[in-house]
Amino acid sequence: MKRLIFAVMAIMVMATPVVNAQKVNKQMLLDKIASTEAASKDAKKGKKAATWISLGDAYFKAAEAPTKELFREAKYADIEVTMGLPEAKNDGVVLNGVTYSELVYPWVKIYIVNDIVVTWEQTQFVKEGDLVMEAFNAYMKAYELDSKQAAKVELALSRLANFYLKTGDAFQDSAKWGAAAENFYKAYFIKSHCANRSVDDAKYVYYAGYLWVLDGNAGSKSQASYKKAVEAFDKALAAGYADEKGDIYQFMYHAYNGQTDSAVREANLQRAKQLLMEGLAKFPSNDNIIAALIDVYTAGDNMGDPSELIDMIDAALKRDPNNRDMWFGRGKVFYNLRNYDESIVSFKKVIELEPTNAQATFFIGYFYIGKGDALSEEINKRDYKSSAEWKADSQKVTEVYKEGVPYLEKAFELNPKDFSTVETLKILTFRLREEDGMMDKYTKYNKLYEEMKAQQ
């Protein structure tokens, strides 16, 4: 997803910077909230739209005061003019893999690169709670009391939505995906109440869904985040929105698939499959959707016939023959169809494109074992008339097994700590122990197997 850049033209008041000059008059802001809240509860004043607009203004001013002067991509020299010099400066601070200079102010920490503001973290709040949403409720009450205030309310709601967008951008740049998603979601919620709303506004709830998927993927594997992502994407689609490439459908798959502890997991995957097919009908050249479908079809026995995907995959590979992930998926599909030759062809293409891919290299060896096992089963069903004929066919099985050894050894070379590779090599070389050099290989891998097993 392209980062949403919140661009604002700010008029800076020229003044001489003063040390620790960031001024947020907390008490004054709290007093204003208290007085307007009291007015809203007054029997007479509480019936006036102006009272509720004043309350909304009080909430919003308190919410935006600590970060009012901050904008992404602003020059730090301009920020110094309005906020003064920082209390401290810390170079070499790393956020989301990016190194920043951290500027510490009383209410906020600003992170800059090459003297350009990239993100920030608010460290103090005028009042706990979501004051922006409190402002929204106040403005909506004003409109309820007097629809003639529509223009004022519309302008106020735009300010609230923009605040959420600006804050969401800041959280996104510091990799706080969940917090960023919450802000984009709230921006859409407010936009949906504006008279001038449009389908394009649904991109904010789409961004929220995408960010919740990222939050779910980030370490904790948060099931709640995946569920929120589904809700956000549903709202985007219901509003008639889809991104240009149709990636919303594959993101929805990830949101459903991430819910691994769900009691309705199979139903979730079936829903994801349905959405992916809908997405493919609208965006037939979207390879991400096809890749997600491969995952769905190969996720279990009840997800459909993987052969349905072959034509789609091969068409995608004609468009992009160097798509490593698509070749990988093609190999998975053919493996599920027990077509080991095509699986091997596909994974050989993967390692041609990425020679250091230990997993793909291992799978080639593993598929040769599968091919040998299938051939062995077939031989065991035959009624042989002579031992010579049986030996000849048995040797064909052995030759297939032998083809897998160099790939497994290469996989071990690429990833010598992988226990499953060593275990597979141990079993295969023992099976081939009567072939030249295989007994020595078995001794080697059996020893490694025992050593690795003892360390587990």
Structural description of this entry:
With 456 residues, the protein is of the alpha+beta class. It is 62% helix and 6% strand. Among the domains are: 1-173, no CATH class; 356-456. The longest helix has 28 residues, at 387-414. The chain starts with 25 loop residues before the first helix and ends with a helix.
Helix/strand layout:
Layout: H1 26-41, H2 49-64, H3 76-83, E1 88-95, E2 98-104, E3 108-113, E4 116-122, H4 131-145, H5 150-173, H6 177-191, H7 203-217, H8 223-238, H9 247-257, H10 265-282, H11 287-297, H12 310-319, H13 324-336, H14 340-353, H15 358-381, H16 387-414, H17 419-431, H18 438-455
Antiparallel strand pairs: 1-2, 2-3, 3-4
Which features does this protein show?
alpha+beta, four-stranded antiparallel sheet, 6% strand, 456 residues, 18 helices, single chain, elongated
What's the story with the biggest beta sheet?
4 strands, antiparallel
The DSSP helix count reads 18
List unreliable stretches of 5+ residues: 5-19
- Beta-strand content estimate: 5-15%
Structural class: alpha+beta
The total beta strand count reads 4
Q: What is the typical, i.e. mean, pLDDT?
A: 90
The CA-CA distance between the termini, in Å, is 41 Å
Q: How much is the radius of gyration in Å? A: 31 Å
Question: Helical amount among residues, as a percent range?
Answer: 55-70%
Elements, N to C (H/E): HHHEEEEHHHHHHHHHHHHHHH
Please give the order of strands in the largest beta sheet. Answer: 1-2-3-4
Shape: elongated
